[in-house]
Amino acid sequence: MPVVLREAWDTLVPDMTGRHGPLPPMMLALTVVTGLVDAFSYLLLGHVFVANMTGNVVFGGFALAGAPGFSLLASAVALVAFVAGAVSGGLAVHVARTHRGRQLLYALLAETAFVAVALVVTVVSGGPYTGGVRFTLVALLGIGLGVQNAAARTLAVPDLKTTVLTLTLTGLAADSRFAKGPGSRVGRRLLSAAAMLTGACCGALAVLHGHPTLPLLGAVVLLAVASACAAALLRSDAPWTRPLVTA
């Protein structure tokens, strides 16, 4: 089997006795969630991301320069909400620091709750999402994705950060044989990029040709399934459940 396909297969169907056990495919599912919610926020909430904060900093700069279509307040709300979510996610994973499955479950339950409330807001309010509804949705989704990022950072599954692809793509190129590197884990890194691309594409198609609530509905379904899987893993004492030792 070619190396790329083997790496992709090992990510999708991992060794349950390995250091990260079932975490890689779950991180891929969360990467799809990122694409779905950012498609919703960017296309329907006015040029703002709720998961990729680098974009919001740049958008804030555009707004300060007077570029049309960008809101400094929306970018600021997203940033503050994301930080609040990251703090909450940090608390959740540190409470469950002795078991990585429990860390993931606590974070997933919190994220699912915030995204589900955002879904309810979209259904009740109807579109277009302007004024207070817009900022409420930005805040709810920003908090939820901040929780997700805190969990992904703590779980530290290589190349599967769920939101940030810049370093993943850099590693794919810089570590490649063409760059005289040690090998770039192309299979796993391409899967990470493909997962976000899939989520963003599906989210955009749902917004443009379906119903504006569909991206959030899809995100809630994925999060609920991931939560159920994480709950089923709580009794495991395999090596992957033990916290990572950091210097």
TrEMBL record:
<dbReference type="InterPro" id="IPR010699">
    <property type="entry name" value="DUF1275"/>
</dbReference>
<keyword id="KW-0812">Transmembrane</keyword>
<keyword id="KW-0472">Membrane</keyword>
<feature type="transmembrane region" description="Helical">
    <location>
        <begin position="190"/>
        <end position="208"/>
    </location>
</feature>
<feature type="transmembrane region" description="Helical">
    <location>
        <begin position="214"/>
        <end position="234"/>
    </location>
</feature>
<feature type="transmembrane region" description="Helical">
    <location>
        <begin position="105"/>
        <end position="126"/>
    </location>
</feature>
<feature type="transmembrane region" description="Helical">
    <location>
        <begin position="132"/>
        <end position="151"/>
    </location>
</feature>
<feature type="transmembrane region" description="Helical">
    <location>
        <begin position="70"/>
        <end position="93"/>
    </location>
</feature>
<dbReference type="Pfam" id="PF06912">
    <property type="entry name" value="DUF1275"/>
</dbReference>
<feature type="transmembrane region" description="Helical">
    <location>
        <begin position="26"/>
        <end position="50"/>
    </location>
</feature>
<keyword id="KW-1133">Transmembrane helix</keyword>
<protein>
    <submittedName>
        <fullName>YoaK family protein</fullName>
    </submittedName>
</protein>
